[in-house]
Design goal:
Layout: H1 9-24, H2 29-45, H3 55-68, H4 71-88, H5 113-122, H6 126-138, H7 142-146, E1 153-154, E2 159-165, E3 169-174, H8 177-190, H9 216-230, H10 238-251, H11 256-263, H12 268-272, H13 285-294
Antiparallel strand pairs: 1-2, 2-3
Helix pairs in contact: 1-2, 1-4, 2-4, 6-8, 6-10
Length: 304
């Protein structure tokens, strides 16, 4: 389906208003783009006429959308349209009960500590090797790792300040001693005044001159290449490192409430899903985290 901006002046005015409302509502850039993309797609489908859509028309749209897109896209388009109706058209939103994702309980694929070591060893580009190590060693989401800044590192208290995470929330995450050592060594070669992981476009020597961090797409492609090279049959992505970290910590006996705080989960039920993948439960999180990360070898040799 077409996601370009419809060539209709009235629609363009409403679309611009939609973007302003989304920004003022405090949504994250990723969410704003998802909702805006949905409105462009819906606008193209209905010839830029969104004022008088019926439930039957919306049923047709979401049915067609699901033929080529995921349930997550259906959900985002629905939420984006609801926001558009409420804030731009200033109309009452009639809930569409016909759209409901089927319930499915899936357990994520995770890596063993040995497989984590193999993944780091197989990653030959230093930027990605250290990035993968960092998000694993602190249980970070992909976007949280990308947005890490020098000012977020608190070496006095051995923690990292994660800013504007999911749900616009900040949190403090324990930083293992090995992670601090690795990041210091990595930074000394690049010396960017702001970003921990500066963009690779100007090479290592000029890394301090770039104006943005690593590209999300480049990181994901690097992960896929490494996973393919390892011959893993599991469905592994960057987020799998976060799942693996959580499972390894629970296995080591880290308290589930402490893990909830580290991961930044709003609900304990989200954290509790990792109990399906683990076996143990007790004691001090910081000591156990350091013991786990000390067992991981980043293996600097051979990376460039």
């Amino acid at each position: 389906m077409n996601t370009s901006l419809p060539d209709n002046q009235q629609f363009k005015k409403k679309y611009a208003k939609h973007l302003k409302h989304l920004k003022l509502a405090g949504y994250q850039p990723k969410t704003i783009e998802a909702y805006a993309r949905g409105i462009r797609r819906i606008g193209n489908y209905f010839d830029a006429k969104l004022n008088t859509l019926t439930q039957d028309q919306l049923l047709d749209y979401f049915h067609d959308l699901l033929q080529s897109h995921s349930w997550n896209t259906v959900k985002l388009d629905l939420y984006g349209l609801q926001f558009f109706y409420t804030h731009v058209l200033q109309k009452t939103w009639d809930h569409i009960p016909l759209i409901k994702k089927p319930k499915a309980k899936r357990i994520p694929d995770i890596l063993t500590i040995n497989q984590v070591n193999q993944l780091f060893a197989a990653t030959k580009i230093m930027d990605y090797k250290v990035f993968f190590f960092t998000i694993y060693s602190m249980g970070l989401r992909l976007s949280e790792g990308i947005n890490l800044k020098v000012s977020d590192i608190d070496s006095d208290h051995m923690r990292v300040h994660i800013r504007n995470a999911k749900g616009n929330k900040d949190r403090l995450v324990p930083m293992p001693h090995k992670t601090l050592r690795v990041l210091k060594q990595f930074w000394l070669a690049r010396r960017h005044p702001e970003f921990i992981f500066p963009n690779r476009k100007r090479g290592v020597k000029n890394a301090h001159l770039v104006d943005r961090p690593l590209e999300r797409g480049g990181i994901q492609v690097a992960m896929k290449k490494v996973v393919d090279q390892m011959g893993l049959k599991k469905k592994i992505s960057c987020h799998s490192l976060r799942h693996s970290y959580a499972t390894h910590l629970l296995n080591a006996g880290v308290d589930i409430i402490e893990l909830q705080n580290i991961l930044g989960h709003v609900s304990l039920l989200t954290t509790a899903r990792y109990t399906h993948l683990t076996i143990a439960n007790h004691d001090n999180a910081y000591k156990k985290i350091n013991r786990i990360i000390d067992a991981v070898d980043i293996n600097w040799g051979g990376a460039r």
